[in-house]
UniProtKB/TrEMBL annotation:
SUPFAM superfamilies: Winged helix' DNA-binding domain. The chain crosses the membrane at residues 68-90. Keywords: Membrane, Transmembrane, Transmembrane helix. It holds the Pfam family HTH_24. This is Uncharacterized protein conserved in archaea. CDD domains: HTH_ARSR (cd00090). It comes from Methanocella conradii (strain DSM 24694 / JCM 17849 / CGMCC 1.5162 / HZ254). It comes from the Archaea.
Amino acid sequence: MREIIKFIIFIFLFSSICCSANTQSINENNGGYSITTFDPQKNPEIKNNGVIDQGLTPFWKLPVHIQLTYILFCLFSITSLIYIFPFFFGRLKHALENPKTREILCFIQRNPGVTIAELSKRQNINRGTLKYHLSQLLSNDKITFIKKGKFARVFYNTSSPMDIENIISMYLKNENTRKILFKIMDNPGISNQELSSSFDLAKSTTHEYIKKMSEDDILEFRQDGKFKRCYLKQDAHMVLLRYKPN
């Protein structure tokens, strides 16, 4: 990438120098120019529309330095296009031409929130090789990583990397948070104390779980006297309907 940037800067500077030299040469040859009032008797060759009636000057009759500047600029422009376009448009094609990379991407789409360890085991591939394939997908914006706790989970890249489905899929990986989510879904308005009693969890543990869910915009609290009632947000409820076991 640095080489491409240097190449573009070189083209820009070279073109600027050529144009400056060209302008200076014209000014030196013609002695510059001045603006005066138009006099049709002194300038009979100029038509009413202000164009000199001498026809277009053919390219080969232009001064040599102008011809060379034009030709060199065209050559550099064509060269830069040939050099740069494959870099930008060939990256994705090159990455997805690898069958294993495509297979890994399809697996991530079917299993959002998979960890690198799980992916390595399920795809029967060592960590080093897997990281290479993931780096190819990441550089082409096909996947994204979301760190939750001590694990980094892999998701297919959507328009919003932290969309609600990706977040919920992370909670569904944990047995306790999965049970809590479906319990709230089936019992809207359930309290922290009732959740703790249902799953034999400490109140502090349950509170920490539902607090994180609230921060991730999955559920909301409504005060009912001294109790806080838990309700799933509509978007989260719609996503959980697809994951709920029969």
